Amino acid sequence: MSVFMAAAVQMRSGTDPQRNAEDFEVLVRKAAAGGAQYVQTPEMTGGLIRDKDARSASFTSVDQDFVAKAAARLASELGIFLHVGSTAIKREDGKLANRALLYGPDGELITTYDKIHMFDVDLDNGESWRESSAYEPGTRAVVADLPFGRLGFAICYDLRFPQLFRAEALAGAEILTVPAAFTRQTGEAHWHTLLRARAIENGAFIIAAAQGGLHEDGRETFGHSLIIDPWGRIVAESSGDEPDVIFAQIDTAQVAAARSKIPNLKNARTFEVDQVETQLLKGAAF
Which of 103, 94, 99, 110 is nearest to 43 (CA)? Predict the structure, then answer.
């Protein structure tokens, strides 16, 4: 089976994981009712909580997490592949991971992915983010074989590191996933461009479920969940930042077609970088 219906769920997660899990369930049911066989939710589905102490107190292990338990139950009940784009999961060492969870139609956890790249930045609008102070970064890329194609994982800021997507494409990924909570400022500037670039340069579908709007913890996210085909065309998009579900029929045969027209994955070559030092001539004017 190479053709399937995909859905990207856009959310506005607050600071209460239990309430977020309830909102998650409503939207996932809407996606399944629309015929989706694969459903993806955004980064931090379980909650966006800026306060360190509140964040630590709100999240727990995967077997106790509100969203994870709801996802396992819904995947089984609805007979879908349910991809929790990410939520905060407490690891055995007590640290938090920004973790994606993929459940199969039997309700079993197929695989997980921990976000590798941490968003540490001071923005010119006064916002400051230190994701590495809250979460332990992952160390491995992940691809998973599903009945309709091979899925590659990424989360939000990973989008700015094309080597991750290239590695997954070279490992056979046909569908690249980028659940996110992009800030409004960076989303307006780069969200569409970066996602289309990752689709084009890897000849792959992109599915990117997003957080959107003004959240309880004060941050504002961009929304505009997207599904993009291997030619870089946007085939589905949320109209703004409100909670929403978007759908697209995915035919992974388009991946092979795109890669045959532009075989850059096959044509890539290794190379070295020469660093040339120059000595400016005395009196030279520039």
Answer: 99
CA 190 to chain centre: 15
| Residue of 52, 90, 115, 242 with catalytic role | 115
Distance, CA of 105 to CA of 128 (rounded, Å): 40
Question: CATH number for the domain including 63?
Answer: 3.60.110.10
Is 52 a known active-site residue?
no
Tallying the residues shown for the chain, one arrives at: 286
Q: What was the pLDDT predicted at 273?
A: 96
* pTM > 0.85: yes or no: yes
The two tokens of residue 14 are 């607050």
Residue type, 96: L
Whether residue 273 is contained in a domain is answered as no
Q: Is residue 282 part of a domain?
A: no
Q: Considering the candidates 43, 168, 174, 237, report the single residue annotated as catalytic.
A: 43
Domain that holds residue 260: 3-267
* Other Cβ atoms closer than 10 A to 190: 15
Cα–Cα distance, 63 to 109 (Å, whole number): 11
Question: What pLDDT is attached to residue 28?
Answer: 98
For range 271-283, the mean pLDDT: 80
Q: How confident is the model over 63-76, as a mean pLDDT?
A: 97
283, pLDDT greater than 70: no
Residues 220 and 88: their CA atoms lie apart, in Å, by 19
The answer to whether the beta carbons of residues 14 and 215 sit under 8 Å apart is yes
Residue 168 half-sphere exposure toward CB, CA atoms < 13 A: 33
Query: Catalytic annotation on 156?
Result: yes
Helices 184-202 + 162-170 axis angle, to 10: 30
Predicted confidence band at 280 (pLDDT cuts at 50, 70, 90)?
low
- Average of per-residue pLDDT across 162-175: 98
Catalytic pick from 90, 156, 168, 174? 156
Helix (H, G, I), strand (E, B), or coil: what is residue 251? strand
